[in-house]
Amino acid sequence: MTWLQRNKIPAGTALVVLVAAYAFYFANPNIAVSMFSNAWFLAVPLVLGAMVGVIGERSGVVNIGIEGQMLVGAFAGFFAAAATQSVFIGVIAGALSGIAMGAFLAFTTVKGQLDQIIAGVVINIVATGITSFYYESGKTIPRGLPNFDVPLLSKIPLIGPVFFSDGPIALFALVIVIVLHFLLFKTRWGLRTRAVGEYPSAADTAGINVIALRLFNVTMAGTLAGIAGAYLSMEATSTFERGMSSGRGFLALAILIFGAWRPLRALAAALFFGFMSASASQLQASNVVNIPQQFINLLPYVLTLVVLAAAAGRVRAPGAVGQPFVKGD
Amino acid sequence: MTQTQSQAGETPGPRETLLEIEGLSKSFGTVHANQDVSLRVDRGEIVALLGENGAGKSTLVKQIFGLMTPDAGTITIKGDSSRIKDPKDAIRRGIGMVHQHFQLVPVMTVAENMMLGHETARGGLLDLDGARQMVRELSAKHNLSVDPDAEIEDLPVGTQQRVEILKALSRRVDLLILDEPTAVLTPQETDELLGVMKELAAGGTSIVFITHKLREVLAVADRCYVLRQGKVVGGVDDLSSTTTSDLASMMVGRDVVLRVDKAEATPGDTVLSIKGLQVKDDRGLPAVDGFDLDVRAGEIVGLAGVEGNGQRELVESIAGMRPSIGGSVRLGADDITKSNAHDTNNAGVGHIPEDREKHGIVGGWSIADNLVLNCYDEAPYAKGFVRDFGAVREHAVTLREEFDIRSPSVDVPAGSLSGGNKQKVVVAREMSARPRLLMAAQPTRGVDVGSIEFIHRRIVEARDAGAAVLLVSAELDEVLSLADRIAVIHGGKVVAEVAGKDADRTEIGRLMAGDTDSH
């Protein structure tokens, strides 16, 4: 079977959405670009968070600590940037703090066989505690990560201004989704990772080191959570606030499920959510309907719930998610 | 890879010694799983490892495959006695293993599973075409047909096993270990597998074959070792002069009655009456399709059939675990077609389920609690809504004695027992309720010879006490030796009924395969 035959429904959906988006664009280019840009702007941390989940769960480790990992990334990144007055160093610090948080989850759950949910909750609580305790007001960074135009690609109507005229982390998020999708389904690492997450004893008897692969994957996935945090404090804004991840890590998990544990579909799911949020703000701003603002703000979350409920039962989690691997069991 | 083949020439005898185990011991806590085990396998030989559940067969082969490390003793493969570090090391030294629980990733294709662990890549890309090609070549060479692009979870068990064997062969094995390969196979698939084993051995591959089915040992093995309580208690070098009962008594350490001694049945009134029953399977396709059968008090009706012809759905539907979409099930004068499992049980149906781990016991609960799962809410085990633990325990102690459940006490978790003893817990519970109808689905699957004998005797006793017994089994031998009347199921309906004493093995095998034309 060809790729298109196997992916008829997602490919068809993507085509319909693309046509609709361009119809909107040609009808009203300004509003379309602003709405889609806003959607992508909101989707970036969700995409990165969902990728953390994809890597972890595909390897068999649930990560509900994405929220906390992001928060620590935002914090470490911002204060490193403030101290050194270098946003570049800030992003590196965010990524490194993400690795540390990833390693914490990996070593407690994969090596120590601590319950994965408990480990995730610990990460979230510790992250809130640490970032609040060491928070200092009044610190500033030189300026946020600047937007730039990607040569040629930024000239494409609609897609150019939306995806290729943003900051470096937004572009990174787009690239990492495609790279990860390729790695997961086309390479040796991907085959082994999926095997380890689906049926680890089969991987073990095939001579794959299940523990080592899970440790590596969960640790490295933390990098992306750290970078998502850096996006929040240094690209989307230029400030750190207490609890600024504000549920995005959990939303990323919902997107992961809606995206059926596949990077490209998770990207689409994140964009859908971003677009719903952007539409809500647009509705609010244009004042076309007289609905209390709170209800409009609720819209993306309600829609996410509805979509998730519809997706439940249709998508299937990797077989060994949540189960520690014990050799020779 | 070190050059080890040269040493093999020093071994005396006409054949090259491929594997030699000396003084192997392995303990788990205070349990000696293997004690001073020594054995030898030559090139091109099929060696059977016989033993009851818990005799230490699986532990032994897991050590050969590097999944466990021995406490003492040596394993020498082609003259190399260095420690086998892990499965990868074992594979490198030419050992392949087909596990009892298949080691295949269910959501991946045959080709992906074949390449897992030793993938070839072209410029970073997985070489899936190469893997497909390899599957095709291997399956043509060994006459084991599989579709490289089929997903494992869509394949029948017999085909999955074929994939496992091909996977092992793709690693160029000298020694293939098969851990209870026929436990999940239909009679036809079993015969096919035995043929494949013979061909492989003829081609120079040695096979170590774990089983507790004596007929299979005599059919394919060149030699066999018998294990009991972790030790090798005997070996047979020439199987041609051995009978199944010789092997069976070696396994259990005493004489076993393989034939079931039973008196002529004296059937009474009809207890179970099934008319035109229709039930769907998990995928929503018709599995039981117009099924008619009567079972009378005091007789054992054996339902013979190739697995997957609606037996599971039929049993689950009678037991109230699966809704039917047409027809009726009556128990005496009561209509139990729409009854749930609890009501069906209270109406007098005892059910020994096919999957004891899933539907038979609650692994984490004590033996005592498991023994009252069907009556925990009734006197004397409950007074009003308060349980009476004294009565529960007393009941358990009596049944443990009566049904020979081997456990330290009745308070240990049922999940910690061996397969045979778990099954005895289920049998004890279902029979102690004195059901009008006893439904036994695969009652001796994965159970050792001693327990099989015991369970068979109990089923006959239940019949003699006046129960109607419906026996569903994929083991044709079991149906033939127990049933007073045999019904053959094919495609969800009864295609033939014969009296137990007139039954002919080949004739029933033919009917099971759906061949009714010449009738």
UniProtKB/TrEMBL annotation, chain B:
Entry keyword set: ATP-binding, Cell membrane, Membrane, Nucleotide-binding, Repeat, Translocase, Transport
Gene Ontology CC terms, in alphabetical order: plasma membrane
CDD domains with a match to the protein in the record: ABC_Carb_Monos_I, ABC_Carb_Monos_II
ABC transporter domain mapped to chain residues: 19-252, 272-516
Annotated transmembrane regions: none
Protein name, per record: ABC transporter
Broad class of where this protein is predominantly found: membrane
Keyword Repeat among record annotations: yes
Topological category with respect to the lipid bilayer: Peripheral membrane protein
Keyword Glycoprotein listed: no
Cell compartment(s), UniProt: Cell membrane
Any one GO molecular function term: ATP binding
Originating organism: Knoellia locipacati
Pfam families with a match to the protein in the record: ABC_tran
